[in-house]
Amino acid sequence: MRAVETYGKGHVVTAVKTEPAATAGATDSKDPAQGSSSYQAHVAIVLSEEKFDELEKEAQKWRTSKVTVEGGLWRLGQLYDGASNPPLKEKSTDADWETHFASLAKWVAKYPASATARIATAEAYVNYAWVARGTGYADKVKENGWELFGERLEKAKSALMEAAELKEKCPEWYSVMFNVALGDGWDKKQARELFDQAVAFEPGFLFYYNQYAYFILPKWYGEEGEAQAFAEEASKQVGGAMGSIIYFEVAGETACQCDKDRDSMEQLSWAKIKEGYANLKKVYGSSNQDDNKFAYMAYSEGDKPAAQEAFETIGNAWSRTVWRSGENYDGARAWAAGP
Fold it and tell me: Counting Cβ atoms within 10 Å, is residue 326 exposed (0-12), middle (13-18) or buried (19+)?
């Protein structure tokens, strides 16, 4: 926690540069196979080819400009996502991961003062830890999975501690630490301190709100209604259009938990969700995932006009993490189109 409390000491916050995706260098279309995912794949290939100079220039550019893309996420975060997974990450073997970590180690060796290289290494170990654990509930994880999970999280923490000693600082450090906190099972007081320090360091890094909301869901370390209360608190504290966008983002975490038995619209304001989604589209443009979450929430709320408009935007680009199956998506879409 000492590192969390001191990481941002002396940091001066500057304005976020919000630009349309096309002018920001992004091509994040409504097709999830294009845009951000293609950029992430590009970064993974650049890393595998050990073009570290290019990665450093890209990271500095996105960190300094704070360019955001559709959905309000930073382009910098997309770079880290690409750098923290092997190419073709969904099919990666242990050998692929070993090769990937070897490339990351070379990056660190060539740029010992680079925060980006060490944070990407930490994020890669977090991702590799979840490969060992799996994404199911704790009672389904095998003993060997827990052992590897713990070992890899420790390596992630070590890389983050090394990054904390560097002069160069980065908002992604807190984001990766959130993932460590989730895996390690920090208590809620510690998680809230991490969130508060993260937002103080970089208020415009919206993903912090999603991560903290996810942490306090009942399936992790929170109580029923806690995430909903956080949505109210955060939206009021920030205020204006940005506050409403945060409400939408946090609501999406509790309403779309990838588990039909846990998805919940209870204690959420549908009017505020709609307002936040509308403002998101105006300020940043909505991502494919945002559109899918809104459609799912509109379907859950029984708002046919809102759902129909969202389904028209999505077309066939449905999200498996939101709908779980094409059958579920097609059924909801048919309902929206009906009388």
Answer: exposed
- What sign does the CA torsion over 147, 153, 156, 158 have? negative
Q: What percent of the chain has pLDDT over 90?
A: 75
Q: How many CB atoms lie within 10 A of CB 279?
A: 19
Distance CA 211, CA 193 (A): 13
Please count the other Cβ atoms lying within 10 Å of the Cβ belonging to residue 18.
15
Give per-residue pLDDT as tens, 310-323. Answer: 999 999 999 998 99
On the 0-12 / 13-18 / 19+ scale of CB atoms within 10 A, 29 is middle
C-alpha 204/C-alpha 77 separation (Å) is: 12
- Looking at the structure, tell me whether residues 50 and 73 fall in a common domain: yes
Torsion, CA 278, CA 279, CA 281, CA 285, rounded to 10: -160
CA dist., res. 159 & res. 5, Å (int): 17
Tokens of 196: 């508060």
Domain boundary among 146, 177, 202: 202
pLDDT band at 31 (very low <50, low <70, confident <90, very high): very low
Q: How far apart are alpha carbons 123 and 328 in whole angstroms? A: 32
Q: Please, which residues have CB within 8 angstroms of residue 311's CB and are 6 or more apart in sequence?
A: 295, 332, 333, 336, 337
Q: Which residues contact 221 (CB under 8 A, 6 or more apart)?
A: 185, 186, 187, 188, 191, 215
Is this model's pTM higher than 0.85 or not?
yes
In a domain, 90, yes or no: yes
Burial class, 283, CB count within 10 angstroms (exposed 0-12 / middle 13-18 / buried 19+): middle
Domain check: are 301 and 196 in the same one?
Answer: no
Which tokens belong to 47? 């890393």
Separation CA 207–CA 48 (nearest Å): 27
User: What is d(CA 38, CA 67) in angstroms, rounded to the nearest whole number?
Assistant: 17
